[in-house]
Amino acid sequence: YAVFVGRNNCGKSFLLKWATKQIGQNAFYVGPQRHQNFNTLNYFTPDPRRKANKWRNFSQQADNATQNVDLSTLVLQESISLLPDAKRESLAEIIAIVLGSKMELLHTVPGNSMSNQYVSVDGHNISYTSSGFMLITALATVLLDGSYDTFLVDEPELGISPEAQGVLADFLYDRNHRQRFFPHLKTLVLATHSSIFLDRRCLRNNFMVTKSGDEISVQQTGNITDFNNINFLLLGNRLESLYLPECIILVEGKCDHAYLSRLLELKFPNIQFSVINATSDSRMKEIVSLAGSLFTDLQKSPYRTRIIPILDSVHGRDIVPMFTKIGIPESNIVIWNANGIEYYYPDSILNEIYGEGTEIQIDSDNVTRNGISYKKWELCQKVVAKLEDPAISLPAELSEKLFAAIDQACDLQPIGE
Q1: Which strand (E) or helix (H) includes residue 124?
Q2: Which residue among 215, 278, 321, 336 is least enclosed by CB atoms within 10 Å?
Q3: What confidence tens digit (pLDDT) does each residue in 119-131 have?
Q4: Residue 251 pLDDT greater than 80, yes or no
């Protein structure tokens, strides 16, 4: 991996094109203009000279260009048609992983294999999808082309929401995904204005591009300070862009995230929280480790006492020692007595939803009482929608553990005083 970042007009695009020429025919430059719409797929006759012809055209245009032109030879309709069947199946898997959509090839006339084929996305022609969807699809399609071992992508974030950028970046940097879908890929080079596409697994894979006059310079990231400077640049060189919170809460699931975000908003209206859904306690360790590297020495950082991990009663044995070793006070680590945030919903709201009765029963993803059952996320949404009164009565453990940890972390007076 290599990630080039820098200000506008510093030469990133020129650098990608120049590098493509130096590498040769096994390199494919993917320019910003990779979004084309189409209704049906065409049949393409295999051309053994296709790769050489594309390379020749690219080189000639690069040598003769008198202005900045895209030079990308990617045509999505053609690229999908030229993929072998197995690769098109891989493309459908990638779209399911990254975008959560079902992609398949269907005939325009059902039951007639001689009719034209089109790409269906969740039951609709791909031509109806968003430009961001098409851009991600184009990138995934070209990376599946085994004719090349090096891809140089200009602005992978183009037209893609920050959330989708994060999912796409995670996918591209995942070694297992890369080995499974792109075993032919030796090198992936990105030029970006998005901090999301920085390589956080290997800081030295990030490069700062600058220009003085007509000279373009590239400097490799050498340490965490260099990396933070690059990250800060991509966030606009403004501290307010970071919108730093007063307290960071780490939780293990989306129900915990939704419920506690709303609850803390009601109970602590004057505190800016960042509630992070880490999805698991093992992922929590990664996030805390990243915070440790970000602040150089977490034990000396003002955030040392402002990170509050929340664990279910069932959790990894090594996670608490790891938190304390890296600098988080043990008093900041909240461990619930019960295994599930559902046990900490207000009784009054649960009574509205289920009717009064015995304690809720949790079986896998189902939460049941009085013969009424809801999925965890469905129940969470109902609870959050009804959570409006800051003075609502809550399970004592919330005050004794979580609110007390927040009071201490933010140096507040105990609630009610």
Answers
A1: strand 124-125
A2: 215
A3: 999 999 999 999 8
A4: yes
